[in-house]
Structure formats: structure tokens, C-alpha cells
Amino acid sequence: MATSLKIDDTLKSRVQRLASQRRRSPHWIMLEAIEQYVEREEARESFKQEALASWTAYKESGQHLRGEEARAWLSTWGTDDEQVVPECHE
Question: What is the pLDDT of residue 2?
Fold first, then answer.
């Protein structure tokens, strides 16, 4: 898919300067920037959808962990006494 992109002269100069510093083409710099942006926004959207699904599940079942329960469990991560996920409750 061929796509053209119009950018102002200031941004164009910045891209060209960075490309020169990185010994890359301006095209590579722009593709890399777009790819990183899309990946970041896809991850953000995935997180949002997961949160909405969790909220819906909570509203339907009432099952949850209190913040202190989650923090206590998380504080064991990476220790010799790492705990399993606590059971959700109403």
C-alpha cells in the first residue's frame, strides 16, 4: 500500500537530522515512529477492553479481590514465598 505523508518543514528537518545521526533513511525513521505509535495504541486499546470486560464480569458476578488482598499477593512476587493468586469472593 503506497501512502504519501505531508509534514511541515520543521518536522521534516528534524526527521532528516535524526536519520543522519542514526545513519538511517528518513523513510526508516518515519516507519519506525508509525510502527511504535500503532503498537502503543493497540496495547492501550487492549488494556482498555480488558478493563471493561473485567468491570462487566464484576457487575455480573460480584466476584472481586480487595486492593489490600491484591497488594499482599503482588508483594510476594519474586520472593522465595511467592503466593498463588487469591480466590475471588463476593
Answer: 82
